[in-house]
Amino acid sequence: MILTSSNTLENKEIIEYKGLVTGESLIGANIYKDLFSGVRDVVGGRTSRYEEEIKKARDIAFESMNEKAKQLGANAIIGLKVSYDNLGGTMGNTILVTAYGTAVKFE
Amino acid sequence: MRRALLCIGVGTAVGLFVYGIFLYLNLAIFGWNLGLIFAPLAAGYVETILANRIIGENLGAISAFILFIDTTFYSFILKNPTLGWNFITAGSIIVILQAAFPTAVNYILLVVIGGIISTLINTFKITGKKVKYAIRNQRLFTWEGENVEVETEAVPFFDEEKSNQKINNLDFYFITSTDMKDKEHDIIGIFNSEVILEKGSDLIKLNPEKIEQEKLVNIKNGKDECLIKLSEKIKRNGGNGILDLSINYALIGFGGDSIRISAIGMGVLIKD
């Protein structure tokens, strides 16, 4: 599955637009994770636990989106958009990761 | 870094000064000097005010932590007042820890203790139900048998495949790119639609995973509804597609208690 945020696929011809595909994932609040990241916030530096969680959530969203594109018979996704939104929760750590794009078939 | 250290240093100095005043005046209850509570608070307060003014962000009240270490070391190791264990001592320890680690202690007080109380209440409720079912000669959470009352906890589920088919069988083009190659189109205009989801209270979570899953399912259903509303709006205006589609999620309402899902894009009539 080729993923691109551009309108076209370089050196490839799009023969059919299959439709919209989306993937969503939510990182929930976790007391231990929050406490440890809180310590890192005081000390400074990167909170690698969050980075891992966000990466995991993004992978889930991408996987869901790719699966849907395959179901539609597509072999690429163009106009890809990814967003990370804070949905509050305890200490504001509930993060929604969304990925969506247009599934297409190319030759 | 230098300015951050300055803020922490000033906060610590103010905290030590406050502790000195409390020691000098001997402001104590049952042998507990109140400076143990107020000195870290003063240090953290001064540091936070300074940091917000000078750096523009909160440093996490590091001076309160330093004061906590200093005062505890002085009071318990150097001075060793040989305090007895009583209700005042226990309460003071909690308040001192709260002053030094506000986030952690608030979490323990609100989430952990609140969760334990809620779980105990829930356990009493389930036990009561079990007794009721035992009297009726019925079983709780029974999966087989006729005329048996079954109580189960619904697991939130979202059918991704069905949702995908529903959105893509609307006879409508949802395109996230700004153009469709080799397809002519007439522009109709900018269209948008919104769906508001009530988020609900989640201060104490008995089952956080289930609540998060419910929230995600609601968001996915809300997104589908938002896209369907958008397609219907464009269809009513003579279009059959949308270009440069963008879907956004945001918290709205007092205290961010609701989630707004919006979809926006350029409504077009695509000529096949």
Name a few traits of the molecule.
heterodimer; A: 107 residues; alpha+beta; 2 helices; B: 272 residues; Translation Initiation Factor IF3; 2 domains; 4-stranded mixed sheet; 17% strand
Please give a structural write-up.
The complex is a heterodimer of chains A (about 110) and B (about 270). Chain A is of the alpha+beta class and about 110 residues long. Chain A has one domain: 2-Layer Sandwich (Translation Initiation Factor IF3). In chain A, about 35% of the residues lie in helices and about 35% in strands. Chain A has a four-stranded mixed beta sheet with strand order 1-3-4-2. About 5% of the residues of chain B have low confidence. Chain B is elongated. In chain B, helix 3 packs antiparallel against helix 4. With about 270 residues, chain B is α+β, with helices and mostly antiparallel strands. Chain B folds into two domains: about 100 residues; about 110 residues, Translation Initiation Factor IF3. Helices cover about 55% and strands about 15% of the residues of chain B. In chain B, the strands form two sheets. Chain B has a four-stranded mixed beta sheet, with helices on one face. In chain B, strands 1-2 form a two-stranded antiparallel ribbon. Chains A and B meet through strand 2, helix 1, helix 2, strand 3 and strand 4 of A and helix 5, helix 6, strand 3, helix 7 and strand 5 of B.
**What's the overall average pLDDT of chain A, rounded?**
81
* Beta-strand content estimate of chain B: 15-25%
Shape call of chain A = elongated
CATH topology tier name of the largest domain in chain B: Translation Initiation Factor IF3
Which class of the largest domain in chain B in CATH terms?
Answer: Alpha Beta
- Measure the end-to-end span of chain A: 13 Å
